[in-house]
Automatic annotation (TrEMBL):
One of its GO terms (cellular component) is extracellular space. This is Cartilage intermediate layer protein 2. Keywords: Cleavage on pair of basic residues, Disulfide bond, Extracellular matrix, Glycoprotein, Immunoglobulin domain, Secreted, Signal. The keyword Signal applies. Pfam families: CILP (PF23591), CILP_5th (PF23708), CILP_8th (PF23730), CILP_C (PF23599), Ig_3 (PF13927), Mucin2_WxxW (PF13330), TSP_1 (PF00090). The keyword Signal applies. Residues 281-365 form the Ig-like domain. It is found in: Secreted, Extracellular space, Extracellular matrix. InterPro entries: CarboxyPept-like_regulatory, CILP-1/2_8th, CILP-1/2_b-sand_dom2, CILP-1/2_C, CILP-1/2_dom, CILP1/CILP2, Ig-like_dom, Ig-like_dom_sf. Gene3D superfamilies: Immunoglobulins, Thrombospondin type-1 (TSP1) repeat.
């Protein structure tokens, strides 16, 4: 009775209001209220905040974060008191409370300048139940013949009126082994432990093969119910003998071997066991970035493959393991009732007995309000060189753009692994504006409002060309594999195009030569998920000419390709080691081809397969430093059947390992062609041998590292060591050598090759150790590299940049190093020792630079601002401001300009906007058109194309854009150059309703006149009206052809899912003058559409009368031609209404 009175008083106390601004849930004075209070219970007191700063915030969300198990999901009441035990209602302070949000007090709301007291709170919860952990199992009721044992647990509850769900007792069977004397054997007699029947006179004979049919030697054979007791081992032929196994009953055998997945076989059905090579897990489905509103739900998916199949998955949020019991996840993670604090990075880890692998992280964004700001961002568009805005003189105009960040749109279903195109902040409305350029005006479409819309989802393509590393011979009609599936064939010139799914994170492509001239080459391709396509120049190694060896003898093959240098190692094959695919030992002549990728030859770096990474036990991908790779190809004497080899030894000469700390860590690795990841084959052991040769005057003792391997399939092998001294190098690419921050290039492939210098010669690299490639984003690229803090020249790097097959130039280092040009301040620049590839010889190419990889000293202020960052400072490298130290590349093609009335960034397809004046009308298919113009003259000439609407009712007479390009000198022919000028293709506009024949004007700038037009092009234009008038000698006007004409017309058209790739391929064909070739050297005599004569004007001091006296005929002819041209110009001035045309037509 006393307890009931106490609770009633407590209920009345809770009825009091704290202030007029505070509302609490009141408690009724009925008997029902008393019953509720009896059943409910109070939590402990919580005090997670102090009144400093803005006030005291005892938010329920934060309390649950720190004390997840102490607060129920829906509290029924709350009590708040100060730490002096004064009730909140008695303090006179303005406070707020909510059973959903908690309790808070704000300092600035308090009267008379007071600050909030320090409060603690507690909550009233409905009765709860919880099982205690299970106790230990009791003893078994029987030791044999079958028994049972029991374990118990207790229900912990806050009220006697509620019960736990489930059973308090669990029973388990035990003592399953038969009791002595009880087993009855139809054949033989029981074993000593009565677990099986034994037949002393019977011997089980079996064989163990790999899935490829090769015998597996050294496999352990045991009974499945006694796996730790080894009964037999397989011999070199994969055979084993197991005595005492009866034939009348089925016996389950367990077969185990390192690097193989375990296999269990039954003797009653088959005595031959197939063993699968154990493969580490590999992620085939990565979680994807998602955006959700607060309170919504999300599904994150992960899937891995391997042998055995991964059986455990772990999910992490910002690096913290999520509770499996709480989230109930396996492969997929489901999050419901999302809150903002659940935003962040999520990744999964898949594990099996063979190892672990981590997925790439996915970013989950939980927002309470729309993430798309309707006000456009600033986006400066560069104007033509001759456009000077009155008043400002600025060369840029703010056209605005939307940030294209993810936003939470209205999905039809929110529980898919992939949201499809998803929703992005995009253009909602645009307006036409006119830019005053002084002498003429320029139209532009500017963004006025942004909104959440469906993202533009570009098609992701991988394109490129496969050629040999020695002489660029193409891999013709080579087979292309992704995993074990053949997905394509290279062309006659070695070209290939692969379309991949947008959710692909890591793309491993294997190129196989069916003629066996080149080694199989797996490549790990990087690609730009935002924009579709990257061009790869793939190098492959030519196979070494096979040599004949005797399979019955010990054979030694050198590993080394540098003439006059000792080999890095040797391959030692014991006698009778070769076998056929069916496991039969091969005897006779073997044609052996061993191709070694020698790191001492810098040119072989581009041909190295894979990306020199391995996966550690925790599932993290880590880098390797190579000392050489080799590919082996053993065939029978007819050179047809592929042979395998077992117990092969690899010897590595330690004199080539200059870093002594690498010797004990050296391992032998093989490349998994499906995953592109290097897998450990064996460790190395020391041995000494006496050897001589290669110019040695006497025999001497040399130390080798020996590793053992088995050639089971056609794999590449690697002599590598894991390296943990790592840094990041910051590199940016620019449109020109002005290095303007607004002219950074995205989508450029930056490649860094680690070099190891010769001792004492820091400028003479000894060998390359690894390579990495990264695509530049809006803030450049950060490339991983090995570095050293003690010796600045312990590691050096060779860095190159490619964009669509075009090599970019590095910032110059001679005649002297200029920190403002290179982008790195002193004195760090001297320590790095930056040198462009032409530093010592101006005749060399300018497309690379070499640096010392000196790890920055955190105590030296000069070394804390880039361009080299410690490995743990990746975020600082990626987010570094543009004025921080960095290395620079720039495009070689100068005097090139592009202007679009509707702004569009070709390196980010998500910036595409649907508009009638868009240069590219279809975001899924980009068609690039070029016309080849030949110039006769001593100097290169700027050629402009002015592109306007021609026949469409919405665009007729309106400008699409301008293209300017300087002609390129033909190195084979004097006083001749040519230009490949882009023009706006004819075709459907963005609404796909009506064709527009674009009106194109080709205008060379200077003293030029057209002397010929391609006959086939002229005939085509005549037969496909309407025909544009061409009354001017210095310009050419046409309505662009709808058909994709070829080099015979001087027109080059390429369609691709990426605009930059389409343009690069078209330019390559235009330079070559063919419809299927590619060249970077201008061939001005092939595939020309227009020819102009652009002679230099001679400077003469003779008057008109003097010229009439000395050469009257020529002078009169020049005067007559000038008058006719002047008449034509006057007609042009009166006929045209567009001010831009008026200005161009008067240019000499």
């Amino acid at each position: 009775m006393w307890q009931t009175k106490s609770l009633i008083c407590q209920a009345r106390a809770l009825e009091r209001t704290w202030t007029t601004r505070t509302s609490l849930r009141s408690t009724n004075h009925s008997q029902m209220a008393v019953a509720d209070l009896i059943l409910n219970f109070w939590t402990s007191w919580f005090n997670i905040d102090h009144p400093g700063g803005n006030g005291d915030y005892e938010r329920l969300e934060a309390i649950r974060f720190y004390y997840r198990e102490r607060v129920c999901a829906r509290p029924t009441a709350m009590e708040a008191r100060t730490t002096d035990w004064v009730a909140a209602a008695d303090t006179g302070e303005v406070v707020h409370s909510s059973l959903e949000k908690g309790f808070w007090c704000i300092n600035k709301e308090q009267p008379y300048g007071r600050i909030c007291s320090n409060y603690h709170v507690r909550f009233q919860c409905p009765p709860g139940t919880k099982w205690s952990p299970w106790g230990r199992w009791g003893t078994c009721s029987a030791t044999c013949g079958g028994g049972r044992r029991i374990r118990r647990r207790t229900c912990v509850r806050s009220s006697m009126t509620v019960q736990c769900v489930g059973r308090p007792v669990e029973i388990q069977k035990c003592g399953k082994s038969p009791c002595p004397g009880t087993r009855v054997c139809t054949e033989g007699h029981p074993s000593e432990d009565c677990s099986r029947c034994v037949c002393d006179s019977h011997v089980l004979v079996g064989e163990v093969y790999s899935v490829t049919g090769v015998p597996v030697a050294g496999a352990r054979v045991a009974l499945a119910n006694r796996p730790k007791i080894i009964r037999a081992r397989t011999n070199v032929k994969g055979q084993f003998r197991l005595p005492g196994i009866c034939s009348s009953s089925s016996t389950l055998l367990s077969i185990r071997k390192e690097k193989f997945a375990p296999a269990d076989v039954s003797t009653s059905s088959n005595t031959t066991g197939l063993s699968w090579v154990r493969a580490k897990p590999y992620i085939v489905k990565h979680p994807e970035d998602k955006v959700r509103y607060e309170g919504g739900r999300v599904l994150l998916c992960c899937k891995a493959t391997g042998s055995p199949t991964p059986d455990k998955y772990y999910w992490y949020h910002n690096g913290t393991l999520l509770d499996r019991k709480l989230y109930k996840y396996e492969e997929d993670l489901v999050l419901r009732s999302l809150k903002p604090e659940q935003s962040g990075e999520y990744h999964c880890k898949a594990s099996s007995s063979a190892g672990s692998i981590k997925s790439t992280p996915a970013l989950l964004t939980v927002i309470g309000t729309p993430a798309c700001n309707s006000t456009p961002e600033t986006h400066l568009v560069r104007l033509p060189m001759d456009c000077f805005q009155p008043g400002t003189g600025s060369k840029f105009y703010n056209a605005g753009r939307c940030p294209h960040n993810k936003c939470a749109g209205s999905l039809d279903f929110d529980m898919r692994c992939r949201d499809g195109a998803g929703f992005c902040c995009g253009v909602k409305s645009m307006e036409s504006r006119t830019i005053d350029c002084g002498t003429y005006s320029l139209p532009i479409r500017a963004v006025t409002e942004c909104g959440c819309q469906k993202c533009v989802e570009p098609t992701v393509l991988v394109r490129g060309r496969v050629v040999t590393a020695d002489n660029n011979e193409p891999l013709r009609f080579g087979h292309i594999y992704i995993g074990r599936e053949r997905v394509g064939t290279t062309g006659y010139q070695g070209g290939f195009t692969l379309q991949i799914t947008p959710d692909t994170q890591r793309l491993v492509v294997n190129f196989v030569d069916p003629t066996q001239k080149f080694i199989d080459t797996p490549k790990v391709f990087i690609f730009d998920k935002r924009g579709g396509s990257i061009y790869h120049d793939v190098k492959v190694m030519r196979k070494q000419i096979p040599i004949d060896i005797n399979a019955g003898e010990t054979n030694t093959i050198d590993l080394g390709e540098i003439k006059g240098e000792d080999p890095i190692g040797q391959l030692v094959i014991p006698p009778n080691s070769f076998h056929k695919e069916n496991g039969e030992i091969y005897e006779g002549t073997v044609k052996a081809s061993v191709t070694f990728i020698d790191p001492r030859n810098i040119t072989t770096a581009a041909a190295a397969p894979g990306d020199l990474n391995f996966v550690d036990a925790e599932g993290d991908m880590l880098p390797l430093r190579t000392y050489g790779m080799f590919s082996v190809d053993f065939r029978d004497d007819t050179n047809k059947e592929v042979l395998g080899a077992g117990a092969v030894q690899v010897l590595l000469d330690t004199q080539h390992v200059k870093m002594q700390e690498h010797i004990p860590a050296m391992k032998l690795w093989s490349l998994n062609p499906d995953t592109g990841v290097w897998e450990e084959e064996s460790d190395f052991t020391y041995t000494q041998t006496t050897t001589g040769g290669h110019g040695r005057s006497k025999r001497e003792e040399r130390t080798f590292l020996i590793g053992n391997m088995e050639i089971r399939e056609r794999r590449l092998f690697n002599l590598d060591v894991p390296e943990n001294r790592r840094c990041y190098v910051k590199v940016r690419a620019y449109m020109s050598d002005k290095f303007l921050s607004t002219e950074q290039l995205e989508g450029v492939v930056i490649t860094l090759i680690n070099l190891e210098p010769k001792p004492g010669y820091s400028s003479n690299p000894r060998a390359w150790g690894r390579f990495d490639s990264v695509i530049t984003g809006p803030n450049g690229a950060c490339l991983p590299a090995f570095c050293d803090a003690q010796r600045p020249d312990a590691y050096t790097a060779y860095v190159t940049a490619m964009m669509g097959g075009e090599e970019l130039e590095a910032a110059p280092s001679s005649p002297k190093m200029n920190p403002n040009i290179i982008g790195v301040s002193q004195p760090y620049l001297d320590k790095i020792d930056y040198q462009r590839s032409d530093h010592e010889d101006p005749a060399l190419k300018k497309t690379a630079f070499r640096i010392n990889l000196a790890k920055p000293n955190s105590n030296n202020l000069d070394e804390t601002n880039g361009p080299i960052y410690p490995y743990q400072s990746l975020i600082a490298c990626e987010n570094a401001p543009v004025d921080a130290n960095h290395f620079r590349f720039f495009r070689v093609e100068k005097d090139k300009y592009e202007y679009n009335v509707v702004p569009f960034q070709e390196n980010d397809l998500t910036t595409w906007t649907g508009d009638y004046l868009s240069w590219w009308p279809n975001p899924q298919e980009f068609r690039a058109c070029f016309i080849k113009v030949r110039i006769h003259g001593q100097k290169e000439v700027m050629v402009r194309s002015k592109n306007m609407g021609g026949t469409h009712r919405e665009t007729k007479g309106k400008l699409y854009g301008i293209r300017d390009i300087r002609s390129t000198r033909d190195m084979r022919e004097a006083n001749t150059s040519a230009a490949c000028v882009e023009f706006k293709c004819s075709g459907m506009l963005f609404d796909q309703a009506e064709v527009d024949r674009s009106l194109i004007s080709i205008l060379p700038q200077g003293n030029c006149r057209r002397i010929s037009t391609n006959n086939l092009l002229q005939e085509y234009l005549t037969k496909h009206p309407p025909t544009a008038q061409n009354n001017e000698s210095h310009a050419f006007t046409m309505l662009a052809p709808v058909d994709p004409l070829g080099h015979n017309y001087g027109i080059y058209t390429v369609t691709d899912q990426n605009p930059r790739v389409a343009k690069e391929i078209a330019i390559g064909r235009c330079f070559d003058g063919t419809s299927d070739g590619f060249s970077r050297e201008m061939k001005s005599d092939s595939g020309v559409a227009l020819t102009y004569s652009c002679p230099e004007r001679k400077i003469s001091r003779e008057s008109l009368f003097q010229r009439l006296q000395t050469n009257p005929g020529q002078t009169l002819s020049q005067m007559a031609r000038a008058m006719r041209e002047m008449e034509g110009l006057q007609v042009q001035r009166s006929a045209t209404q567009h001010p831009l045309t008026k200005r161009i037509s008067t240019v000499d």
